[in-house]
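Second attempt. The first submission of Galectin had a stray character pasted in from the spreadsheet, which I only caught after the job came back as garbage. Lesson logged: always re-copy from the clean sequence file. Corrected sequence (181 aa) follows.
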Amino acid sequence: MKFVIIMVHVISHVVGNNMTALKVPDMELYPYNPTPLSLPHQGEIPGAVDVGTVIYVTGVPFKDVTNTGFFINLQCGPKSSDNTIGFHMNARFEERIIIRNSRIGPDWGKEERNVPRFIFAPSTEFQLRIRVLQDRYCIDVGEELFAEYTHRFKELSDIKTIYIAGEVDIHRLVISKNLMN
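This time the job returned cleanly.
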């Protein structure tokens, strides 16, 4: 079975400038692939990232996951040592932290490590949602806001690639666009 990134358009309910009510109407319409996405995975974000983009990821960390854990990058073009990464999220299991950061060209910024709790567990499915707002990314687990990350790289339309790697099986990857923009 071939794994595909699904691009969907949804009309969301917007409260002010906040997209807290944004949901894909029925995730059951989008296939849960029992054969995980082959990692590392590099895929195009159709139309680039913009305000209203939402990325849904369903996955399961490996049973014997190490500190390396896994990461998700929203970046400008293919993986390279000096490509700009607008948003980097790295779940590090041994440290029990979730790093958020950006890399502008070859230079990494200061890591943000403050999270209320470590939400991932080996062999336990997670549903993650990354929402792009005007001034920040919101990371939701299930339906709960878990962390926020202020945009350091402001040229969102230059972010055209999603890159996922590490010790995780990804079973669903959905990229949606908000038609209200």
